[in-house]
């Protein structure tokens, strides 16, 4: 009986980890697709496609994946879920635990070209603050980001 429970817990953990890996892969793929889009169509078209509610990189109904972008000073220049953040400096934004996540996006992108940041942020599907892992990459003078909420 104990072996069956251990097996069931193991399978559940594997499915949760698999879902997180899938979310992370989707987030990274979205950022890379956005960079390709910007190279082909220009930065302004990318920002427009992110900010428009029916744009290619905006939040889709039933999903929690969307693109967002900052300039090198931490000003939000595009947001696929919370358009009201566009134009605001988010450089000093902290999660509930005090983590300066925008600073980390910028640091990772500027020093390594890209990187992952884990922090807490409101999930648009649930409205609750959830653990999120975001992939950020630099393209010209933009830090382009997308993240997955941990299940």
**How would the global form be characterised?**
globular
Counting structural domains, the number is 1
CATH H-level superfamily: PAS domain
Report the average pLDDT across residues: 87
Query: How much beta, percentage-wise?
Result: 15-25%
Low-confidence stretches: 1-19
Count of helical segments?
3
Organism: Candidatus Geothrix skivensis
Subcellular location: Cell membrane
Membrane topology: Multi-pass membrane protein
InterPro entries: Double_Cache_2, sCache_2
Topology diagram in text:
Layout: H1 2-41, H2 43-51, E1 67-71, E2 76-79, H3 101-112, E3 114-122, E4 129-139, E5 142-149
Helix pairs in contact: 1-2
Explain briefly what this protein structure is.
It is found in: Cell membrane. 40% of the residues lie in helices and 25% in strands.
Can you offer a commentary on this structure?
The protein is of the alpha+beta class and 151 residues long. It has a single domain, classed as Beta-Lactamase. The chain is 40% helix and 25% strand. It has a five-stranded antiparallel sheet, with helices on both faces. Strand 1 and strand 2 form a beta hairpin. Helix 1 packs across helix 2. The protein is globular and about 35 Å long. The N terminus is likely disordered.
What attributes does this structure have?
disordered N terminus; Beta-Lactamase; alpha+beta; globular; five-stranded antiparallel beta sheet; single chain; about 40% helix; about 150 residues
């Amino acid at each position: 009986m104990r072996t069956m429970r251990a097996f069931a817990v193991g399978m559940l953990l594997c499915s949760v980890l698999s879902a997180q890996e899938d979310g992370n892969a989707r987030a990274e793929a979205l950022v890379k697709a956005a960079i390709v889009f910007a190279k082909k169509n220009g930065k302004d078209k990318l920002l427009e496609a992110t900010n428009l509610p029916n744009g290619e990189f905006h939040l889709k109904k039933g999903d929690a994946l969307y693109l967002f972008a900052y300039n090198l000073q931490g000003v939000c220049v595009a947001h696929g879920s919370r358009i009201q953040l566009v134009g605001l400096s988010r450089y000093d934004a902290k999660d509930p635990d005090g983590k300066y996540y925008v600073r980390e996006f910028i640091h990772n992108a500027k020093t390594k070209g890209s990187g992952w940041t884990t922090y807490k942020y409101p999930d648009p599907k649930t409205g609750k603050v959830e653990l999120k892992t975001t992939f950020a990459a630099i393209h010209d003078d933009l830090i382009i980001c997308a993240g997955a909420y941990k299940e």
